[in-house]
Amino acid sequence: MPRYAVLLRGINLGSTNKIAMADLKELLTDAGFADVRTHLNSGNVILSGPSAPAKSIEKAIAERTGLTVPCVVLTVKKLRAIVDGHPFADVATNGSRMMAHVLGATPDADKLAAALARDPDNARSGPGVIYQWCPDGLLKAPAVTEKLGVLVTARNWNTIAKLDALISA
Length: 169
Description:
about 30% helix, Alpha-Beta Plaits, four-stranded antiparallel β-sheet, alpha+beta, 8 strands
């Protein structure tokens, strides 16, 4: 069965949208997915299944928890393309300050160009992602994804690398 990385947006941030990872693993298993494994407490899941459309995962979460949680589903190939496309590998020495803003859809070209222009030295687009090197930390970096008009969920590079290792294991 194919493997997928599922990135849930906006769970377990402070007191918002709380979902225990054990409960998430159970509900995804009950929804028919296999080999479900969570990583960290921020909505990162590796699973297997004949297909992993975001809508069916979102529906399973809503039915079990009552929460509306958008997600982005990456195939092994898509996750690998994000890892291989890393444009700042020579300067991004701290994985917690290197961000991958994973896109749920392709944004309008003009909106993408405007987003990248907000941080021209440290933001680049890639395959389904905006890479952003934040040498002074994420809170001090310009917001590059606010007006894209598509679902975006961000992960630091340490998390992206770990998900890539888990999905390939």
